[in-house]
Write the structure tokens for this entry.
Amino acid sequence: MVGADWPGVDPEWSREVEVASTSHADAPGTVRRWHLLDNGPQLARRGLAPAGTLLCVHGNPTWSYLWRTLLAAGSDPAHPWRVVAVDQLDMGFSERTGTFRRLADRINDLGDLTDALGLDGNVVTVGHDWGGVISLGWALAHPQLLTGVVLTNTAVHQPAGSAIPPALRLALHPAVHQWGTTTSDAFLRVTHSLAHPPLPADIRNAYMAPYRGAHRRTGVGNFVADIPVDESHPSFPALTGVAEGLRGLKVPALMLWGPRDPIFSDRYLKDLINRLPHAGVHRFEGAGHLVAEDRDIAAPVFQWLGGNFGGSGSASPAAEATAPGNQGLADVAEPEPPTFRPLWDLLGEQAAGPAGGQTAVAEMAPDGTVARSLSWEQLDRNILDLAAGLREAGVQSGSRVSLMVPPGVDLTVALYACLRLGAVVVVADAGLGTKGLSRAVNGATPDFLIGIDKALAAASVLGWPGRRISVRELPAARRRMLGVEASLEALARSGASRGSKDLADTVAPDAPAAVLFTSGSTGPAKGVLYTHRQLAAMRDTVAATFGIRSGARLVAGFAPFALLGPALGAVSVTPAMDVTAPRTLTASALADAAAAIDASVVFASPAALRNVLATRDGLSAAGQQALEGVELLLSAGAPVPEPLLAEVQRLLPRASLHTPYGMTEALPVTDISLEQIQAADADAAAGAENPSGAAAGAGDGVCVGWPVHDARVAIVPLAVDGTAPGSHPVTDPGVTGEILVSAPHVKEAYDRLWLTQQESASLPGWHRTGDVGHFDTAGRLWVEGRLAHVVTAPGAVVTPVGAEQAIERLDSVRLAAITGVGPAGTQAVVAVVETLPPARKAGPAAPQLAGDVRRAAREAGVQVSAVLEVPAQPTDIRHNAKIDRSRLSRWASRVLAGGRPGKP
């Protein structure tokens, strides 16, 4: 079989070697024949000196073919690495030994092979499935050769009292094992079926090639039988030795994971992270057990190799700042980090000061009364009591705690109690829906889950990880059914009785503090990791930018800001609304909340403001008076059109209206007031031009103003293909490109999304936002849409927001979306509109409407090829405002190809 024609494999890589065995499974003097895929001889023939060696070890029932993309990448002259992909003995095209080889034997076998190959250093092991354990066993036994480890879906530890995965349990059953793994090829076929998308026939046949015939599958059955199910298994000591040895392994590590794996689930990934906390981790959402087939793993592996072992090609921050075209950037020094004050610092000051007995946090009931409230003293005491109780329950520094509690008193107390302990709070919006929420929780793998009854029921049904704690006391039967160990009420009582004097007053500023999930409006929601320092910087930025000081009184109609109130030393109230659906905030509910605390500040999303305006006729005179007392309104989460703000101004006549631009990764980034928006529009109407000759006005997107306190913003220019490949940030007016931000409150990293983090931080010192925009001549930033939504029409790159705004100025249009249909570079520009009144069904727009939309878009410089209408735009749930243009593009492609419109 050496040199056989397998798809994706250069025949020159295939070779066999004879290796003297030192395994206890073999008699002294035994020589074994190994089959390898090895590009080493090929590199030597080409005169290429490899940077090192990737030693790739497959699991069961695959073979070295699994690693063909790494072999191809390692053969690239630009970054040559020797890749040795082994077929383990009794597997692939290696010798069938006729012996039962246990884990310790296989680790020893691999050592015999590397001795025979003469590997002499700079070796990075790569493992999958049980090949991961074997590769790690070799790594621990060869520290003098090892420089790094890469792992894909594998495990090194089976928790005591926890059942092994059902698929393996079935394969081990005496009634199934022999037939399923050896007599038939069922085990192979089931494994191959785990690929997402399904394997092509030629790839599937290549995987089957070494295992045709029961006599070729003995090793498959033996491999399954050698899984250590408990302490009595002969291979348990070897597995335990590898698992414990990892804690001392300090070389660079990378884990690439497919979460849709019925065998090696995220709980095994969490165990590996605990043993190798310094490892880079990337979960490929939607990928499964055969992650090397489901996704391109070669690119991230070689990117990681370049970053750790040379050749990354990244410029230094200083080089970026002084690059040609970086107008003004080289002269702006990075601000010195301020003195660290933990997030709860002002909360403690308020509790100890004259305001201690006054209301700190409240939540409203649907009837307009205050449902619950705590004074500053009570809030501080409740936080300390609960922190003590949580610590007694096992929550400690570094523990991950998922908080599934609506904004209000309970969430405020729980969040600050966890932060005081140094625990990492995980906050995923219930608005993500069951599927999105499951992805988020499973990906974060919390140690504890604190939730209301509904969340605990979902956790029980869906198998979410974490020891469960209820908010309220539950009846004993309900506790047992939901697997609840304790309640916040009971833990707070216990903490109060034991005292909290020995709680640490401070936390490590750069320790992880929170994982906050994005809205999921541009793909699966991503976990964003913040340190305590970055959360404190967010508080300080909001305070300095908007002048919010201790004693301010704010209505938090936007969930992220509900938790900042105590940190700002501000009284905060949560209005009666469904926070997972911002459009449920009514004018009366807003007014009741404002009246309850004599509010001076309101936070609300654009969707919430739309509904407030739609329901203002129901306002009482007292409610109107309460809103007239508001001095500052902040609306964030999506662009806010100037006409909407102008209407809000009439409802809140004394308020200064601000629309900060930001994202979960950096909140806020820029800010602008209504008066400044009107001035920007006036500049555009007067014909203010940028150096490119295009008007920097309403037709170019949403003006979001100037950078907030301590933030810097720049642009990476767009290329003709709609990407932003440059490495030189600029601040020149009129240049459209990807928006970059640098600030003390920018996220630490994307959680367990190593590759995404590398992409977002590819320009050192900057976060790539994925948004596109430009500066005008006054230094204001205009947002033109998402980089992923740029349309590449023939001879033009079209950003969507400017044309959408022009279309939305039509009386018959409520919301508009611009999207592209067709191949990149030749895309047709399609406008999808939600009309007033709503259309009864989705499909092509009527001629009159289509003509109006085309004319409006043309005035903004965009030629629209087709106009479609929908009863309602598909928007994200968190903001009810961000339109899913990618989804619309797929739907529009189907409609324009003659398919049934259906629901987008």
Observations:
- Residues 895 and 901 are 5 Å apart (CA to CA).
